[in-house]
Q: What sequence folds into this?
């Protein structure tokens, strides 16, 4: 049977965090043998906010090297930079013509980013969910691992793809979300009511994948807990719940089992155990990253090969869309001049 297609990408802004690994990248790795996987570095999404050109390329390479260090295999998965495949932008324009302004107005992330970017309310902040939709349907993805905060964007993708199909036939599969039960939503260490964000400017809020062990231990030791001494997952205990969720995800156990283990124990032991488990998880990733990042030519060559492979699928999809819309087909023949 033909493998279904899975696609997921992360914008290269900020620093990749433990939340990115547990909520996304680890799930990519677990499914790359089961599905035909496309893992773009979605660098076009990153420029909705201003980037420093002198450091942007280095950060992009850091992200790609971390993909590989976490276990993404470029021999079985297609790893590439979104900006290296021009069809992303071409299809995004076409899909904008089948997306309603009211749909984009309802995007909660747009409203949030608008508040945080009042000095630069560019059109990209408004329309980037359409580019995200193009990223997905360009490769005819069947499954998209997303965080809960991205579910609304996937629903928009499904709506736009369905609308296009209703007009022109079954051009695009309607993608489904994959949201894991554990580790999908790692929260800020200092404000556990908010998701841990790679773009957070407060270092104490996040565990970055490249944080050294001393920093990891210090951040977890100082993280916010809750009143009382029960170690349970409960709505009124967001700090302890976050620690238990992290430990469950890192050790691949359940929060229920951990609750039983920590009966009568204090927060100090829980924090110490979480720190030890996270450090043990990150150390081999950081060692592999160091090796991969030191060979920039090899990293760039891998991205070029990935873009070549992704481009084959992307061109087929865009050609199919052009045909559905009635565009004049491109021809390689050059006729005589009049």
A:
């Amino acid at each position: 049977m033909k493998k279904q297609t899975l696609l997921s990408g992360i914008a290269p802004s900020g620093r990749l965090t433990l939340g990115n690994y547990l909520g996304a990248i680890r799930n990519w790795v677990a499914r790359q043998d089961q599905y035909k996987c496309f893992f773009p570095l979605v660098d076009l999404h990153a420029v909705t906010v201003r980037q420093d050109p002198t450091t942007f390329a280095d950060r992009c390479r850091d992200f790609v090297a971390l993909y590989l260090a976490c276990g993404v295999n470029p021999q079985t998965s297609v790893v590439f930079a979104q900006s290296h495949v021009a069809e992303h932008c071409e299809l995004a324009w076409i899909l904008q013509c089948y997306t309603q302004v009211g749909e984009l107005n309802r995007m909660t992330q747009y409203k949030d980013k608008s508040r945080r970017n009042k000095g630069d309310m560019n059109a990209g902040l408004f329309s980037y969910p359409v580019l995200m939709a193009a990223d997905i349907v360009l490769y005819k993805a069947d499954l998209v691992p997303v965080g809960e905060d991205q579910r609304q964007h996937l629903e928009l993708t499904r709506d736009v793809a369905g609308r296009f199909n209703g007009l022109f036939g079954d051009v695009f599969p309607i993608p489904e979300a994959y949201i894991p039960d554990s580790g999908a939503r790692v929260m800020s260490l200092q404000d556990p009511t908010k998701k841990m964000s790679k773009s957070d400017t407060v270092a104490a809020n996040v565990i970055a994948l490249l944080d050294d062990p001393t920093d990891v231990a210090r951040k977890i030791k100082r993280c916010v807990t809750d009143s009382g001494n029960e170690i349970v997952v409960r709505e009124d205990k967001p700090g302890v719940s976050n620690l238990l969720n992290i430990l469950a995800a890192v050790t691949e156990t359940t929060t229920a089992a951990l609750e039983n283990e920590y009966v009568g124990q204090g927060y100090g032991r829980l924090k110490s155990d979480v720190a030890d488990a996270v450090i043990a998880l990150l150390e081999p990733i950081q060692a592999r990253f160091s090796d991969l990042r030191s060979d920039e030519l090899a990293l760039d060559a891998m991205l070029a090969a990935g873009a070549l492979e992704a481009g084959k699928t992307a061109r087929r999809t865009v050609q199919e869309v052009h045909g559905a819309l009635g565009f004049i087909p491109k021809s390689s023949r050059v006729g005589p001049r009049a």
Remarks:
- The domain at 203-291 is CATH 1.10.240.10 (Tyrosyl-Transfer RNA Synthetase).
- The beta strands are 5-7, 36-41, 78-81, 143-145, 176-178.
